[in-house]
Amino acid sequence: MSSTATHAAETPEAPVSSVDPPNPRLTAFWKVVVIVLTLLGVGGTMNQVFFWDLFGLSLPTNSFLYLIAACFLPIVFIVYPLRKKDAEEDTSPPRPGVPWYDIVLIVAFIAMALWFTVKGPVITEFGWSLVAPTSAKVLSVLYWLMVLEMLRRAAGLIVAGLAALVSIYPMFAGEVPIVFLQGITYDPVTLAQVHVMGTESIHGLPLQTAATILVGFMLFGVVLQHTGGALFFNDLAMAIFGKFRGGSAKVSVASSASMGMMSGSAVSNVLTTGPMTIPAMVKAGFSPKTAGAVEATASSGGSITPPIMGTAAFLMVSFVGVPYTEVLVAATIPAILYFLGIYIQVDGYSALRDLRGTPKDLLPKIRDVLVQGWPYIIALALLTVMLMTMPSEAQVPFYAIVLLIGIALIRPSVTFGRREIVEMLLDAGKSLGQIIGIIAGVGLILGGLSATGVALSLSRDLIVLVGENLILILIAGAAACFVLGMGLTISAAYVFLAIVMAPAITAMGVPPIAAHLFIIYWASVSYITPPVGLAAFAAAGISKASPMGTSIEAMKFGAVKYIVPFGFVLNPALVAQGSLAEIAIAFVCSIVGVFALAGAFSGYVQFVEARIPLVLRVLIGVGGFLIFLPQYSITLAGVGLIAVALAGAFVMKRRAGAGAVSN
């Protein structure tokens, strides 16, 4: 087993390269352009969050957002083509570089965004979002259309189609025959002004949050991976969990959880850790379908795992109006429960099939891994401590980035030269360009609903429709999240439902942070749920298993993700909304509940070390679900059902004379 240090330089590229071929559009020249735009964008963010006022630039908020758009959004036109080539129709190799029409779009957009940057103070002072000169009107229409095209390329036709439909909705909102969908009507030009020069659409709170907070955290995740973090966390997971039964799958769970803390992206997590973990699981005796399912399920936890989480978690900051640290604290217990549920099911699966761990002599030693990888632990610890103590959370990731890069440059065991720095900046630029492009485009959804006033009426009418029944609203919300999550990015689904669904849930007395986390959880289940299951399909591509079968298997391993959101909405102590005593009690009870639910789905209970029949599985599953409910009488009933099921399993084991499965 090679040490972390030995392979630090190849860690970021090795797993990805096998599934992510080089982009022919990124010739040497265009790589330089992407890197320059990325550095300018990151520099603009740092100038704003650190209040440097470099070159005398103290930009108002709208000018700053136009500048960020000028830096990052053109990267979408550089990286993503106008049309994905159909291999069956056109087998010719793609032409290298960016075609002339995309160059025109790039130059035009940068020029427009910089023009708006300069005019930012005037836009605010004279209310150009409603009354503007002809030049601003024309540029607003072009800007709006180009943002939609960027969204189509970065997120797909479905997301862009929804954004386009909702963004033009104010043009005919007054003519809609359905009462609760009626709203204020705008002419096309005024609507373009509202979208481009207003503060509640493209350049609204979501983009403001992304530009000030998300940029730093995304950059931290990229730097951590490119300085050897991915292989370190995989080696650490192997050293700790590899020796236990089903060790290769437990390594997958632990390493994917660690990668999730850095990236927050399910599919990229699969493509980074999957090529290492999936073959190891298959070699250890897991079926290809199960190996892919375990990896997909664990990787899909990235969007809910602190400290970086996914893009939607950063958008929560703007919608809920709380510091990002509060979101991190609230998300911690549910994330622990999610990965605990996967781990227990993997353990049960391994016990039933007698899948042993990896011999100790083939595993890296914990001491050696920690000696080589201590900078990554310090960086994450520093990030967490500073988030809890520093007044400006937007500044925190940049301090951790400086620490990581400094250590990488001076450590002889880590190769971090010019080539590695170039690749790191390219990855950062591509990631930030895509994400900020999506957030800017999805802002049109917010703008369309806000301009008409329909968002408030939708929430109000939804409450009337379900008769103020919280359970029905949650079920409707879960279904809406799932359906939208199948066709949209989590960010797009979250923005739409944060406007329409979250107010209805909070109106029932649910804390806002619990309501918004509920939406994020249920929007992200589409990563492992048929018929889409992007993370499961990506894992199936690596394991060579059936994509649909892998997705169905992933649903079973990720069952806790479907249940926990209902638990923390009904019992907000699970998202740190309550006293310390309430939080501690809820956490302990929920751990018992997760053990029970995992036993019900896997058919094996660790407390008894025995297989359980269907009747006891149903009994222990119902008991596990009841524990998540806040009423103590219901919780005690759940504990009672679990106790009865465990007692029954113990008696059956004694009668059968079966010995405990060794661990």
Task: Characterise the protein shown here.
With 663 residues, the protein is mostly helical. Among the domains are: 13-84 and 93-209, no CATH class; 584-663. Helix content is 71%, strand content 1%. It is built from 29 helices and 2 strands. The protein has helices at 13-17, 28-49, 61-72, 74-79, 100-125, 134-155, 157-168, 188-197, 205-226, 229-241, 247-263, 266-284, 288-299, 311-321, 324-353, 366-389, 396-410, 418-452, 454-466, 470-487, 490-500, 502-506, 512-524, 534-543, 547-557, 559-570, 580-602, 614-627, 632-656; strands at 604-605, 610-611. It has a two-stranded antiparallel sheet with strand order 1-2. A hairpin with a 4-residue loop joins strand 1 and strand 2 (610-611). The longest helix has 35 residues, at 418-452. Mean pLDDT is 86; it is low at 1-19 and 658-663. InterPro entries: DctM, TRAP_DctM-Dct_fused. Pfam families: DctM (PF06808).
Average pLDDT reading:
86
Structural class: mainly alpha
Shape: globular
Give, in spatial order, the strands making up the sheet with the most strands: 1-2
What is the helix tally?
29
Helix percentage range: over 70%
* Number of separate strands: 2
Low-confidence stretches: 1-19, 658-663
Evaluate the radius of gyration.
25 Å
Give the helices and strands, then pairings:
Elements: H1 13-17, H2 28-49, H3 61-72, H4 74-79, H5 100-125, H6 134-155, H7 157-168, H8 188-197, H9 205-226, H10 229-241, H11 247-263, H12 266-284, H13 288-299, H14 311-321, H15 324-353, H16 366-389, H17 396-410, H18 418-452, H19 454-466, H20 470-487, H21 490-500, H22 502-506, H23 512-524, H24 534-543, H25 547-557, H26 559-570, H27 580-602, E1 604-605, E2 610-611, H28 614-627, H29 632-656
Antiparallel strand pairs: 1-2
